[in-house]
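User: tokens in, sequence out, please.
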């Protein structure tokens, strides 16, 4: 095989592998400093549908930021996610409306559903236990920095 052909095949393979980009940041504003979360953004229906499925882990200080175009009650589940998460539901004013802590992976279908219980526009998923460790609470404000 020619070196150019090998290079083209390698480039095609590398572009087909989804590599998370944590270039954007979410800051949670609290009474004590809370470290920022570097996020991968799920801003399209296909990214939102896939979420963190098939990942092996989510490092502390990283997360997934779901952006929706409207305010509505959101429903999330843990299908094909192999580690626990904290789900933070955030309204259009960037105020935390609900936190669901230590959501376990879905072992058997049907997977439990987790509801925002209020209209929200954003959802932040972080490693399970993050909110407890960092003191993240309902009512705190969130700042999204591109």
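Assistant: Sequence out:
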């Amino acid at each position: 095989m020619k070196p150019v052909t090998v290079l083209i095949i390698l480039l095609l393979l590398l572009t087909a592998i989804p590599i998370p980009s944590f270039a954007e940041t979410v800051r949670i504003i609290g009474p004590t400093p809370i470290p920022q979360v570097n996020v991968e953004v799920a801003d399209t229906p296909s990214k939102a549908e896939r979420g963190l499925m098939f990942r092996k882990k989510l490092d502390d200080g990283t997360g997934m930021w779901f952006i929706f175009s409207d305010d509505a009650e959101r429903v999330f589940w843990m299908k094909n996610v192999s580690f626990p998460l904290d789900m933070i539901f955030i309204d259009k004013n960037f105020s935390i409306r609900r936190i669901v802590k230590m959501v376990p992976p879905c072992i058997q279908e049907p997977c439990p559903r987790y509801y925002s219980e209020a209209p929200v526009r954003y959802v932040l998923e972080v490693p399970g236990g993050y909110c407890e460790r960092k003191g993240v609470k309902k009512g705190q404000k969130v700042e999204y920095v591109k």
